[in-house]
Amino acid sequence: MASGSVAEIKSRLAVADVVGETVALRKAGTTMKGLCPFHGEKTPSFIVTPGRETWKCFGCGKGGDIFTFVMERDTLSFGEALTLLAAKAGVVIDDRSRAEDARKARLREVLEGAVSFYHAILTGHELGRPALDYLHSRGFTDATIEAQRLGWAPDSWDACSKALAAKRGATAAELEAVGLTTDRGGGRGAYDRFRARVIFPIRDANGKVTGLGGRVLPGGDDADHGPKYLNTAATSLFDKSRTLYLIDKAKAAIRKSGTAVLVEGYTDALMAHQSGFENVVASMGTALTPAQVALLLRYGSKILLAYDVDAAGAKAGAFGATELLRLVADLGRSEGGPSLVDVG
Fold first, then answer.
1. Which residues, 6+ apart, have CB-to-CB distance to 20 below 8 Å?
2. Which of 36, 98, 121, 127 has most Cβ atoms within 10 angstroms of its Cβ?
3. Nearest to residue 55, comparing CAs of 20, 7, 107?
4. In terms of domains, do 129 and 162 share one?
5. Is position 98 within any domain?
6. Residue 269 burial (10 A CB sphere; 0-12, 13-18, 19+)
7. In a 10 Å sphere around its CB, with 0-12 CB exposed, 13-18 middle and 19+ buried, how is residue 250 labelled?
8. b/e 221-246 (16+ beta carbons within 10 angstroms → b)
């Protein structure tokens, strides 16, 4: 989630308005199109998506939010863009909030670097071929793999951290702060947290990457790599209890239908979206939290549980339904929540 002054600025400035100062935009369904200001083109490939507060050029590949747009347009640092947009929005920022926003922007840059590294391994390197074959065997298309920036973490103790240090200037402290490395203890350095895993980037409701999820391949040796599923540890960017996988992609569909569908894992949610069911999110575990329920209730008043049809799924579904009813009741009492929430 956006923090402090960044969130306040975004609440006051629409991405279409900021971009529209430079680019002539025209309506195209739920998006807006125009000619990219960052490279020469005659056919519009520059897309603004107001519902996600984002922009993306499919010609040159650049994209982001109002901050990255102003940074690209005016050749500014994040801090300079923050100052400019804060003045435009009428938001007063102090040195402490400026420094914190800049720190988090830098951490997201490091994390996005990891997403790009893992995605390149999956889609363009022989090391990623078994993982790519696995995803294809599960029915995932190249379009889904590309759109969601899925990746593969090679079976290496330091491949990602070395790449990010060399190409992004990432420090050991930054890598640890975003949950990409784990300290060995005893002053012996750190190692990559994600190894020999399919990587699922996890984003907040605004589309900002906050963490990663990893899954070992079926038949792989789990002993050296930990549990079957592994998420980023709690960081200043990632809080699993407040996160729902694909909420950034699902929120518009949940608003439109009034219904959110909750599934167990990344692949369940991804396949639902690929099949056209875009109001689906994953809880990345069975323990629902008040923050997750509250997040869904921002966009719809009905929550349906759709867990696997097996013993584990039945157990999770029963637990989830009980927890959901309790949490909704608690939210209703404490926050004046909706009068009716259906659990199916």
1. none
2. 121
3. 20
4. yes
5. no
6. buried
7. buried
8. eeeebeeebbbbeebebbbbeebbbb
- 10-residue mean pLDDT profile of the chain (344 residues): values are 72 93 91 91 91 88 90 85 90 77 88 96 96 97 96 96 94 96 89 97 90 90 72 93 93 90 92 96 78 83 76 51 58 43 43
**Which pTM was predicted?**
0.70
User: What does the block give as tokens for 28?
Assistant: 């195209």
Same domain, 317 and 204: no
> How many CB atoms are located within 10 Å of the residue 24 CB?
10
Q: Parallel, antiparallel, or unpaired for β 302-305 and 259-263?
A: parallel
Domain residues for the domain of 78 are 4-93
User: Which structure tokens are listed for 250?
Assistant: 């699902």
Are 187 and 215 in a shared domain? yes
- 119 token code pair: 């995605």
